[in-house]
Amino acid sequence: MIQDRPPDQPEPAPPVTGVILAGGQSRRMGGGDKGLLDLAGKPMLAHVIERLAPQVGRMVINANGDPTRFAAFGLPVAADTVPDFAGPLAGVLAGMRWSRANAPSARWIATAAGDAPLLPRDLVERCLEALESRPHGAMSGVALAVSAGELHPVIGLWPVALADDLEAQLAAGIRKVLAWTDRHGTVPVPFPFVEVGGTELDPFFNANTPQELADLRARLARAAP
Length: 225
Description:
This protein is of the alpha/beta class. It has six helices and eleven strands. The protein is 29% helix and 22% strand.
């Protein structure tokens, strides 16, 4: 018979570390940290953290430069471990290395873009289900989110065990996400649109321009009680 957990014993942490990729240069927004822009009264990054935190154990922000600009969020910041701003795969690797050192029981990292404030609250659950249903097991595949038929290569679930291979491929010049994930099996995980302010919107919508940010602010204002 399975006994209930004692009331003073905490729930076990999920075997997943959350990694928020906040290292983009935001050129179309005019530069700077897009995740620090205000959205509905708080930084855009705060929306991502609130949605991802309940789905994972430890969390870390991947960003280069002065880490103190993220101090208000109370999360550790891990810079890329490879030089020259090698793109999102470098952020994934930094997250894997951080997780291995600070959350060694975590088998996966879940990545989310720091400018995706509508991130699904069941992202990790659905990605895990997709990986674990693979005939060869979940340790070799990479689950990436899909909406409206479009793959989102920076949002998904990645086995930490693939860190060494990823580092070697980055050293060999690989930069495109799918060029690496296809080596291990890219598993697309579809997500439906969500209703925001009376209209449907992509759950992975990211505001790349001031106009798109203004539109999202207006939608959230209409959706607010």
